[in-house]
Specification:
There is one protein chain. The chain has 309 residues and is α+β, with helices and mostly antiparallel strands. It is built from 10 helices and 11 strands. It has a 6-stranded antiparallel β-sheet, with helices on one face. Strands 1-2-8 form a 3-stranded antiparallel β-sheet. Strands 9-10 form a two-stranded antiparallel sheet. The protein starts with a helix and ends in a 27-residue tail after the last helix. This is Primase C terminal 1 (PriCT-1).
């Protein structure tokens, strides 16, 4: 990335694509995608990349995060009352964010820490709003150097701050999320018999109180997580919906979104019984070399999903 950061935008986009990292154009001086399907249109095809930057020579460079690019990003924010740097430092002391490969200063005064994606695992995006930290994984994207953002009449670039000379390590994103945004602890499932319904009610009460306090950016995910826990604890879907609806509405979610989220949680809980990855699995060997953190298997290609522009 340090080499790409010193190139013109079009050449940098071509360099990323040549390293096997799919790219897509974003508005000059901004973060919004210029292509119809956003990061889903990202490609490594040279002809497509060259065509985009001929059409928009000042376009910023976006890359999808997660499995498709092989990288995930911790986005440290400094907007509002939250201090993302303090949260990142706490996570660092806890040993949860070791192994970053590249640190990039963002135009807003924040920071992007890049890690290799965990092979054969889905690492979905999440937000810990109160901590000032976002996680960009599957389903997300970031803007990369040498892109710049217009702010207060000035063009402020993304800058590579540090490159770790050591080996990269994968990130246990679920464990980091639970550290930054703790969930209420539930009792272990009791054996069938007397007391089971009372335990379910106690779990539901704790989850309801927790869901009602979710801030913007965490509401839908918090409801989904709570519904999954109730599903795992044996509560019927209709009872879970009744228990969680009022709290979710209080947090700002609409009736239809609540119902859809709870149903989705129950389908997920049934299809994928909960399993926490071991530390060894979460911090397995990195597929990215220290001197080429953006290098990928050349046989792994990301083809365009729309016509050439």
């Amino acid at each position: 990335m340090s080499e790409a950061a010193s190139l013109p935008l079009s050449a940098a986009a071509r360099a990323f694509a040549g390293a096997g990292v799919p790219v897509f154009p974003c508005v000059p001086g901004g973060k919004q995608p210029l292509v119809e399907h956003g990061f889903h249109d990202a490609t490594t095809t040279p002809e497509m990349v060259d065509g985009w930057w001929r059409r928009w020579p000042s376009a910023n460079i976006g890359i999808p995060t997660g499995t498709v690019s092989g990288v995930v990003v911790i986005d440290v924010d400094v907007h509002g009352p939250a201090n993302g740097f303090a949260a990142f430092e706490r996570a660092e002391y806890a040993g949860l964010v070791d192994g970053w490969q590249v640190i990039v200063n963002s135009p807003s005064g924040g920071m992007h820490a890049y890690y290799p994606a965990t092979p054969s695992a889905v690492q979905s995006c999440w937000q810990a709003a109160r901590a000032g930290v976002d996680f960009r994984g599957d389903g997300g994207y970031v803007v990369v150097p040498p892109s710049a953002v217009h702010s207060n009449g000035a063009s402020v670039p993304y800058r590579v701050r540090r490159i770790n000379p050591g080996p990269a390590s994968t990130l246990d994103s679920d464990r980091l999320r639970d550290f930054l945004n703790p969930r209420p602890e539930l009792r272990p499932r009791p054996a069938p018999g007397i007391g089971r319904e009372a335990d379910r009610s106690a779990d539901a009460a704790r989850l309801v109180a927790w869901v009602a306090q979710r801030p913007v950016g965490e509401r839908n995910h918090g409801l989904f997580w709570a519904a999954c826990r109730l599903a795992e604890n044996g509560m019927r879907p209709s009872d879970a919906l009744d228990a969680l609806s009022a709290a979710a509405e209080k947090s700002g979610l609409g009736e239809r979104e609540i119902a859809v989220t709870v149903r989705s949680a129950y389908r997920t809980a049934r299809a994928h019984p909960r399993r926490s990855p071991s530390r060894a699995e979460a911090r397995g060997s990195s597929p990215l070399a220290a001197d080429g953190w953006f290098s990928r298997n050349p046989s792994t290609r990301c083809e365009p999903r729309v016509r050439e522009l």
